[in-house]
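Can anyone check this?
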Amino acid sequence: MTQRTTARRGRPRDDAADQRILDAAWDLLHAAGYAGLSVDEVAERAGVAKTTLYRRWPTKDHLAIAVAARMLGEVPIPDTGDLQADLTEFASALAEQLNRVRAAGTPHSADQADQADQADQADRSAGLVAELAAAAARHRDIGELVRAGFAVRHALAQARLQRAREREGLRPGIDPELLIEQLVGPIYYRVLITGAPVDRGYAARPPLTPRPRAPRRRAAAAGPRRSPRSWSSWPATPPGPTSGPTRCRPRS
């Protein structure tokens, strides 16, 4: 055996310092939005050196993403046996959390954001959500982190759809990934493009949470009734001249 000792790997990370930094950053984001987030002020409020903060989050963008991730948290999808109700709850929880991030830095508190937005529709903005999307575009590592988080969330939703296919009669031809994208896409569009608020009421609208079609019943033994003028009754090509008697003759 050698007498060499294991090299030190540095001081263990202080979780309490992390909490103070994120709390201070959220206070600034909540009060003044992304523009009001100052790394120097966060370090001062948290009682840490700037080098301590930068070791954890190298840029303001990284710090803002960390705060938003804590705000958003997980959006679990329930499994009650009622797929429409479960998808509605999933979309509603996402809309509620996303709107809280969007409203950060507005003159209104996050708790009153929905009522304030309804009272003042002229003040529309994607707010902090747009800044976070831009940060993901500016930094490759942030983009990968954001996409990984969404992948986990969508995997949970797709697993719920798979169980619905097995137990609740969801048509096997439905693409789970596409269905989830169509479910949450309008929520992100409303926030990022229109700047309008989103809430549980918006997410619960029928177009956002469609009820999957029930399996079709088998046709009766005599076959389905067909209208004599339905498109399926028309020949594919016009009939040609026949050698039989002419049904209609021109007047002389």
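Reply from J.R.: I decoded it. Residues 1-8, 109-113, 116-120, 225-243 have pLDDT under 50 and may be disordered.
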